[in-house]
Amino acid sequence: MSDQLPAEVRTDLAVVVPAFNEEESLPELVDRIDQAITGMGRTYEVWVIDDGSSDRTFEVVRELAAARPQVHGLKFGRNFGKAAALAAGFEAASARIVITMDADLQDDPAEIPDLVGMIEDKGWDLVSGWKQDRKDSFIKNNTSKIFNWFTSRMCGLYLHDFNCGLKAYRREVTRRVKLYGEMHRYVPALAHLDGFKVTEMPVKHFARKYGTTKYGVDRFINGFLDLLTVYFLHAKQSSPLHMFGRMGLGFWTVGLGIWAYHSIHHILKHFYGMNLGWKPTLTLGLVLIVVGFQFFSLGLIAELVVAGRNPENNFRVAQRV
After folding, report:
1. Other Cβ atoms closer than 10 A to 24
2. Judging by DSSP bridges, how do beta strands 95-100 and 167-170 pair with one another?
3. What residues pair up with 99 in beta bridges, in sequence order?
4. What is the rounded CA–CA span in Å between residue 223 and residue 183?
5. Do 3 and 10 meet the contact criterion of CB atoms below 8 Å apart?
6. Where are the beta strands (DSSP E) in 95-195?
7. DSSP readout, 275-294?
8. pLDDT (tens digit, 9 = 90+) per residue, 270-302?
9. Torsion angle, CA of 181/187/191/194, rounded to 10 degrees?
10. How far apart are CA 216 and CA 3, in angstroms?
């Protein structure tokens, strides 16, 4: 199919591999990628993104690139995170279909033909791997299940495994989705909210062969905060006032209700010659009224921001004649 490539792309497939201190696993990984794609009869390139490694990761990439013209590498001056590494790989890759996978050999390159088939033969825009039998720790397995459950319900895309490193994308998806922070785990949700067709495919998962996991407790906190970002900035971006206005109306109603109750109570007490005095709940009511107005104001400002954007940035054109 390489003779039918559009002018703006170089190869049929590109494999993007974020790597942080993975000098031991890269030679085997590149060999297995080559075996998988060569058997398909496709042209390909591999982009290894060294995310500020402190070992010989980039020296190994140089050696692999000298031996194989398909291998390329980028090196960050410091560790920016997986989302930044993927974003750099998406920018550098020039292929009709982009595959992402982790560098730790827990993903199986032999799955690449099936992932590509899901896009080319079944018309999906993004196919995410689903690690049915995960070889991770008990804590990591169960926290991932919690995140997947919340993400599915908040974004309306029901997948078992959003954060699997093994994915396949049409070029249009990698050009559209913007990654930063810890957003890499929510790429399927971002693509779905932009109107792309997203599905998942069961894939094999292996125990880590070299080194140790690079993830700590902070990734779960950051992941939750980024999930809120996805929900607020994407799921509701078409009309922010609808969301913030409802929240403001709720606070405002409760606050006015508290003041109305105390006003009536004060009037009745006044007729009986009693002084109600200032109550703590009056302060609460006042605070809720102010917060309600702030949410209304925030929604209006967000509406102005959305309305001022170029319409091309708000939706993906499905057809054109």
Report:
1. 18
2. antiparallel
3. 15, 168
4. 8
5. no
6. 95-100, 126-131, 167-170
7. -----HHHHHHHHHHHHHHH
8. 665 555 555 677 788 888 888 888 888 877 776
9. -20
10. 45
